[in-house]
Write a structure and sequence with these properties.
Diaminopimelate Epimerase, Chain A, domain 1; Phenazine_PhzF-like; alpha+beta; 6 helices
Length: 279
C-alpha cells in the first residue's frame, strides 16, 4: 500500500538555487522494490533519484540506491553529496567524524567542511587508454576539435576522459551525436568527459563538460561528480577548482583536493524542495 515518504530535491554543486545539478531523494525507501524505485526515478525525470535504506554494513550510516530514469548505477557523484546533504538536513547524526555511505561500489567516505560544503572520497578505479584506432572517431565526435587521445576511467560509471587545449576549446565543442554514440559503444564508456584549463585569471582552474548519448539524442549533464572524480585520477597532484554547466546556463562549482593518495570531490548543496512523496 503506498504511503507518504519524506522527500527532498537538492541542488548539488551550487550555492545559488537552480544553478547546479538537481537530485531527488526519497529519504525512507524501506519496503520499495526495484520496479517501484525505477518507476519513481522515471517519473521524477531527473538524471538521478536516490533511495535511502537501512545499511547492511554496520560501519555505514545509511545505504543508498541510485537510479536514472533508465537504470540503476552502483555509484554516482552528485547523488552521493546530495543524499548526504538531504539526510543531514533532515537531522541525521553520523556515527563518526565522517559520513559513511553504503552503495553498489562499497563504502564511500564523505567529509563535512565549512559553510555546509561536502566532499566524497573518490572510489577506487581502473583506467585504460582509448584505442588508437578510435582516435579518428573521437575527432568526429568532437565536431573536429583537436584531441590527442583519451582515457576510459571506470569508477562504477565509465567515463571517456579527454583533455582539450583550453577551456575555450572545451566550451566550443559541438558534438556529433552519431559519432559520439558509436564512440561510446566501441570504447565501452558510459559518457564523454571533456576538460580544458582556464587561464590564470579565469573563473576556475578547469572547465568540464559531460556528454552522453541517450536513445541517440545528445544529453549534457549539468555538473557531474563521477566525471570529475575520473578526471581527478588523471590530474592527481595539486588541488584545483572546476566550473561545469556553462553551456546549459548553470554555474556548477566543484573542488578537487588530494590527500593521502586519495582525491576528494566537493561542493555545496541546497535543499530546494522538501515534503513527501506517495510511494
Amino acid at each position: 500500500m503506498p504511503q507518504q515518504r519524506p522527500f527532498k530535491q537538492v541542488d548539488v554543486f551550487s550555492t545559488v538555487p537552480f544553478s547546479g545539478n538537481p537530485l531527488a531523494v526519497v529519504l525512507d525507501a524501506n519496503g520499495l522494490d526495484d520496479a517501484q524505485m525505477q518507476a519513481i526515478a522515471r517519473w521524477t525525470g531527473l538524471s538521478e533519484t536516490t533511495f535511502v535504506l537501512a545499511p547492511l554494513n554496520p560501519a555505514a550510516d545509511y545505504r543508498v540506491r541510485i537510479f536514472s530514469p533508465e537504470m540503476e548505477f552502483p555509484f554516482a557523484g552528485h547523488p552521493t553529496l546530495g543524499t548526504a546533504h538531504a539526510l543531514l538536513d533532515a537531522g541525521m547524526r553520523p556515527k563518526g567524524a565522517r559520513i559513511v555511505q553504503e552503495c553498489g561500489v562499497g563504502l564511500v567516505q564523505i567529509e563535512r567542511g565549512a559553510g555546509g560544503m561536502l566532499a566524497f572520497q573518490a572510489p577506487p578505479c581502473t583506467a585504460r587508454a582509448l584505442a588508437p584506432a578510435l582516435l579518428p572517431l573521437l575527432q568526429t565526435a568532437l565536431g573536429g576539435a583537436a584531441a590527442a587521445g583519451g582515457t576510459i576511467v571506470d569508477m562504477g560509471i565509465r567515463w571517456l576522459c579527454v583533455p582539450l587545449p583550453s577551456a575555450a576549446t572545451c566550451l566550443a565543442v559541438h558534438a556529433d551525436i552519431a559519432a559520439l554514440t558509436t564512440l561510446l559503444a566501441a570504447s565501452m564508456a558510459d559518457g564523454l568527459a571533456l576538460y580544458g584549463a582556464h587561464g590564470a585569471d579565469g573563473p576556475a582552474d578547469y572547465e568540464v563538460r559531460a556528454l552522453l548519448s541517450e536513445h541517440g539524442a545528445l544529453v549534457e549533464d549539468p555538473v557531474t561528480g563521477s566525471a570529475n572524480a575520473c578526471i581527478a585520477h588523471l590530474l592527481a597532484g595539486a588541488d584545483y577548482r572546476v566550473r561545469q554547466g556553462t553551456c546549459l546556463q548553470r554555474d556548477g562549482r566543484v573542488s578537487v583536493n588530494f590527500r593521502d593518495d586519495h582525491a576528494w570531490i566537493g561542493g555545496a548543496c541546497l535543499t530546494v524542495i522538501a515534503g513527501t512523496i506517495l510511494a
